[in-house]
């Protein structure tokens, strides 16, 4: 279980909380001439060599194509959420009256969610943390920083530092959700908000039995079986979004005002509902590129040859766009407030 002393003990001697909380400007390397395209991030030497390993979902994120995929997925999530970046009540804990407040985005990926939140809440000091450096093309707002760190070894901030902590789609990044959730709770202040937006290792058809879902989209179902197997093989819980996370939140004695909302994202524009149709349009790139993104995970995790994976992908693709298949990416939003004691 993470607590401050555990996290400190597991860190190198260089890695202390105080070093991770410099004034914001210390995160910003000077911009090279003619480069308005550098984002700001902090690299800690002890994790540099882990940043691009093939584990923890990292190897894909460094590729431009995965940036495109994640940003398309971000846009789809936003449309599905009614044009908002969240369903949880961030406005209740991030005051817009000039008072200092802080927001952490764990596993920030391309950093787009943190960037948009920094614009929406200009009074908030927003930090995005990820295993890899965030490389954004635009000039960042002054209230945003990106930090490079492995949160499975602890979140490098002191107790109660943040007003809100958000983590989204870390299914293939977190092996021990209990420790991670305890760590998130540790760094949020009493009364603060914790938010987990998570999927599972499977696409399915909503509102039908698992058997019917498999019948309607056999290729996607089979491919999902392999994703689940590969995640399990690598020590990840492929059902964390629907089972482990809500259970851990429900059982945690330091939490109150718990809520869960299910919002699935159509994988292509099969719906007649305008909002779902638009979501499906934005998901197409993700849907079509996901099999290549996951190739390494499955080929390696399930020990199958690339040729077998090609067959799985061909069957997956055969389902895409077929009337009646109506496949979605299931997503759960879980949030809670830390009790004021
Ligand atoms: C699927 S992406 C999601 C990115 C972003 N949250 C979003 O919703 O667009 C998962 C991200 O989590 C990061 N990640 C995974 N394990 C991590 C860890 N242990 N510490 C920090 N970041 C991690 C990965 O590097 C990747 O950028």
UniProtKB/TrEMBL annotation:
Domain of life where this protein originates: Eukaryota
Record region (Disordered): 1-41
GO molecular function: S-adenosylmethionine-dependent methyltransferase activity
Annotated Gene3D superfamilies: Vaccinia Virus protein VP39
Biased composition, class Polar residues, residue ranges: 7-19
UniProt domain Methyltransferase type: residue ranges: 104-196
Protein's UniProt name: Methyltransferase type 11 domain-containing protein
Organism of this sequence: Tremella mesenterica (Jelly fungus)
Organism lineage: Eukaryota, Fungi, Dikarya, Basidiomycota, Agaricomycotina
